[in-house]
Amino acid sequence: MAGYLLKNCAAVIVDEGNGPVVHRNVDLLTSGPAIVAIGGNLGADALPAGTILEDAAGWFVYPGLVNTHHHFFQCFVRNRADLDWTKLSVIEWLDRIYPIFSQLNEECFYHSSVTAMAEMVKHGCTTAFDHQYNFPRHAGKRLIDRQFEAAELLGMRFHAGRGGNTLPKSEGSTIPDEMLETTDEFIADCARLIDTYHDTSPYSMRQVVVAPCQPVNCYRETFVESVALARDRGVMMHSHVGEGESPVIQARHGMRTVDYLEELGFAGPDAFYAHCWELTHDELRKMAASGTGVAHCPEPVYLVGAEVTDIPAMAAFGLRVGLGCDGAASNDNSNLMHCLHSAYMLQCLVSSSRAHPVPPPVDFLGYGTTGGASLLGRRDIGRLAPGMAADLFAIDTRRMDYVGTRHDPLSLIARVGIGMATDMTMINGRIVWQKGEFPGLDEAKLAADAEAALSAVEF
């Protein structure tokens, strides 16, 4: 793979391990999958053969965003008035949404993954974690295989969360029988995916996470076996936690969710939970002490009407925090850049009711980059520095949208927001989006194929 020289960048957000710093009027050189150098006048000497020159005048160059929670398949239930959270109770909503999910077929899972990842790439996301917990029996077991296929098509760095549900609705879950698996089925397919796809080499593009859907929809043994497999294979663990289920877990097991999962061993530096908006400060402190991370999804707050997650407390207690889009059932877009802005603005909205101050805007950029990399157990992504993966995006700030903002690139995304696609997105040293196009791909055909797959299913 050839390298690129991004020449005359107006600003590059550099982080050599001590936090982000703005470097003005510099060049950025890549070779293969990695960043080689960031500095002034890099093209003065002979460049490596095959290096491609990109005029980056006016560009602010940021580390690629890292998504830590999503449900790609839900892209096929976006913008539906009959599933409006504001008109339904949670139970009514679940009773409507899960039967719809259970009708999706293999092609739907593939094309919804292309749809979600394409939107993410356009808006600067270079690493995507997806929590794929929906395995209708008629759709088969190769749904995550198709997700890896979609990621390869778009050039996306992909971490697949193999989810699953094992507790029947008759025993207190919200899951239709069509979507249920046994614990043995779930664990066996997790092992298959790890053996087939999990790559721990530097700049890996494919990894697997053991991710039972949530404690309320799984047997205890499902989580016990998940811990055993993940620790044996050295992979990360993930689940939904702290989104209103703690009283149910208390009634079933005599303790709230955080204590329950810690007792089972589903906690620690190799585990991260999605949401966590209902957790007490004592529970957050316990997670910080164990090293368990949080994938914060700000935008569902608008639709679900739940509490605004206490990010200031999490920051004060030292929790590892990343950002996620969440699925389209509770967030109708896959724009992690927009989520970064929403996360900051929501905290400002409720700041007067919080015991701890809102972190500065630059910290929210960190949640979307280095924070996400930490949750996924990656040390080679999430920041721009020599030796790191060449995952980045560029915004041409020579537009009216940015007049008066260019003095502070670190706060720009969180505080001002970015209302358009990036001018360029690079993943692993390859340009995957530039000048409004996916190089080598026909976006109109991708969209038409996805619409056809959706229309073939009768909801």
From TrEMBL:
GO molecular function: hydroxydechloroatrazine ethylaminohydrolase activity
The keyword Ligase belongs to this UniProt entry's keyword annotation: no
Enzyme class: hydrolase
The entry's keywords: Hydrolase
Superkingdom of the organism of origin: Bacteria
Enzyme Commission number: 3.5.4.43
Ranges where the Amidohydrolase-related domain occurs: 60-432
SUPFAM superfamilies for this protein: Composite domain of metallo-dependent hydrolases, Metallo-dependent hydrolases
Similarity comment text for this entry: Belongs to the metallo-dependent hydrolases superfamily. ATZ/TRZ family.
Database matches in PANTHER family: AMIDOHYDROLASE-RELATED DOMAIN-CONTAINING PROTEIN, AMINOHYDROLASE SSNA-RELATED
Identification of the protein by name: Amidohydrolase
Organism this protein belongs to: Rhizobium pisi
